[in-house]
Model the fold of this input.
Amino acid sequence: MHLIYPVVLAALLFSVGIYGVLARRNVILVLMSVELMLNAVNLNLVTFDVWLADVLRSGQTLALFTIVIAAAEVGLGLAIVLLVFRNRSTIAVDALRELADRDAGEVLNR
Amino acid sequence: MTVGTLAALAVLAPFAAAALGLPLGRVLSASALALSGTFLAAALGILVASFAAAAPARVWETAAVLTPTGTIPVTLGVLVDGLSGTVAVMVALVALAVQMYSVGYLRHDPRYPSYAALVSLFTAAMLTVVLAADLLVVYAGWEVMGICSYLLIGHRWERQANSAAAVKSFLMTRFGDVGFLFGIFVLGVAAGSFRISDVLAAVPELPAGTLLAATLLLVAGVVGRSAQFPLHTWLPDAMAGPAPVSALIHAATMVAAGVYVVARLFPAFEAAPVSLNVLAVLAVVSMVGAALAALTAGDLKRVLAYSTISQVSLMFAALAIGARVPAVGHLLSHAAFKALLFLCAGAVIMMVGSSLLTDLGGLREVMPVTFVTMTIGFAALAGLPPTSGFFIKDALVTAAEQAARGGPAPVGAATAVLVLGALLLTGLLTGAYVTRAWLLTFFGPPRARFQPVHPEAPPVMTLPLLALAVPALLLGFGGLNWETLRPQRDSALLSVLLAGIGVVAAYAGWRADPVRDPAVALGRLRGLFATALHTNDLYERTVARAVRRLATVVAGVDDRVVGRAVTGVGRGARRLGGVIRLTQNGNPQFYLTGLLAGVLLLAVGVVLLT
Done:
């Protein structure tokens, strides 16, 4: 199989992920987009591991690492989303602007 | 140990007492520290002076070059000869008496430890001025004295008037110090060395203009420090300090330093007669004006303050007509009797709680020791025989008379005649004001309500009084070794006669009505004299007002230009920040977009540029 197919697929997946992270309002969909980006990276890792015929299989090993970390990250992320939803009854990203910069006076008076 | 080392130790002993006393005064015994430091200085001073007296022609000088300055070196060292040795003994002994007296006088004062340390520092600074061999080191001591006097005059700074008096004395002496510093520069640069011996050796070769400029600048400095007209108004106000501080300032340190410096650099002044003429005229104005002010002053300490101005003028007048030995002799005798008088005044204040002459009176029986010692001091001040003042004033009159007759003197006969007239007039006035103060203090009916306590003062206070009364009474006999200090019959008779007239006039005025102030007889002149011919008001209206107006302008500039610039910078930064703040909108997706755009820009830039 030619190298170009998996690489283009990975690029497309990554782009979809970026679009999702930047454009979606729903936090769960943002998290899913992050997963897409991570898996695009995983695909790249495995592809180049095979193509370069690495003796140590470092690409595949690294991909396993990424999967584990991604699992942990999603668990943590979903827990945060759950708490945010309980507190604010919304999970729209652009509605959560507590950290925006406000007037100094406004901050001091609070 | 050489004489130079001993002299250096004499300076360092009170300095060490001050350096230890300031931080540790509350832990260690402040009085023991101050007394031991000053006592050590006095003992070493006497040792040094005895060496100097044994070999009158010899001069001990040490020098150590400190940091190289690039041009004229500044050396640290002592200069010991008859003059500096004698004056150092005087300074240390008066300081010792003052320290001892202060133990009693300020025994309930919570700030006594810092006070004692400052008095030690004051003594060390004056000893530096007296013993230093380098003019810039002299100047350093001179300035330390200024700050010490500021701190000590403002000892009771809780009262607004006291701290104002301290600031006034600091500023006025400072004003003269500028001249003094530049005088030192002119002399040092012209002579190529700041060492006193080098400068004096170079005097014959220096151009007359340089010497004139240098000595006139020095005169400005000593006039400020010694409270001569026209920079005299700080001294009466400096009475705000405790009485022992006044004794120290008036007898041994500040005021005496001016006379000492002129005596030390006398050859330079001799070569510039114009400066001596200026000095003589200033001294004449000060001595008569201050005596008139003392005649009418309503406060015992102010009478003594004006008498100091008047007596120091006598020394300057003597120096101006070339009578250096009588001038230094008067410096010593004045130190003894003026310190005595101020310490007595302190005892009176402790008993009565006031120093206004209208509150005093009838203290003769209540305070016998003070009465006797203060009488000796007053007699010496008035120049009555056989006190030390009599011998000295007689020597001054003799010297002035010889100069007026065309004898060898650095100034012209006209100036000498002026000085002679002023001396005689001052003698008359001194007799009068001394008698007035003496009678109003100790005789007549008691005018203030106070509880007479017995004894009048603790022994730690009366002992210095008795000790100072001895030189005030007998120092004149010690001066008989010098030919110029021996009394001459005609001048002695004349000066005693004039002082006697003053005494009798004041007594007659008092006798007519013991309750009333004899100065009332002066009528409307009284108010004029009491304000020292309105000089203070004059300065208040001209200099002070102009300075205040200038200060308002400067404050306005500070507020409107500097202040606005600062707030403007702050406001500008905030406005600029407001633009950037728009990007901090709290939406993480916006931030991430920015991040991605940045990464893309960098990537494109790297691709295009490499």
Q: What stands out?
A: Chain A touches chain B at residues 18, 21-23, 93-94, 96-101 (CB under 8 Å). Chain A has a mean pLDDT of 88. Residues 58-88 of chain A form the longest helix (31 residues).
